[in-house]
Write a structure and sequence with these properties.
single chain, mainly beta
């Protein structure tokens, strides 16, 4: 007897990496192990929401990219994302990083 296991996409790598200190942020990148349709992404910092522009559209991708519209000041930031895995399962995740002074 065989069974089919359903594996959902997961974030394998982020840029900036989770819990790191960076000098500046030119892009927010998420690499998935299986195509993911990122339906929402937000960047929140010490002064609230930060405006970002998606470079990647709504098609399923293994590499997602968005960019801050302006240079972001020093402080702690969190990225929150939501999406649909290739099997249609809703997924979400977050990661954080610090921009040094």
């Amino acid at each position: 007897m065989t069974t089919n296991a359903v594996a959902h996409s997961k974030a394998e790598q982020t840029t900036p990496a989770n819990d790191t200190i960076v000098q500046a942020v030119e892009a927010i990148e998420i690499r998935f192990d299986d195509p993911m349709r990122v339906t929402a992404i937000a960047l929140n910092g010490p002064e609230g929401d930060v405006a970002i522009e998606r470079e990647t559209g709504l098609d399923p991708v293994t590499e997602f990219r968005a960019m801050p519209l302006n240079p972001i000041p020093a402080g702690l930031y969190q990225v929150d994302w939501r999406g649909l895995s290739s099997d249609g399962h809703p997924m979400q995740g977050s990661f954080s990083f610090t921009v040094s002074e």
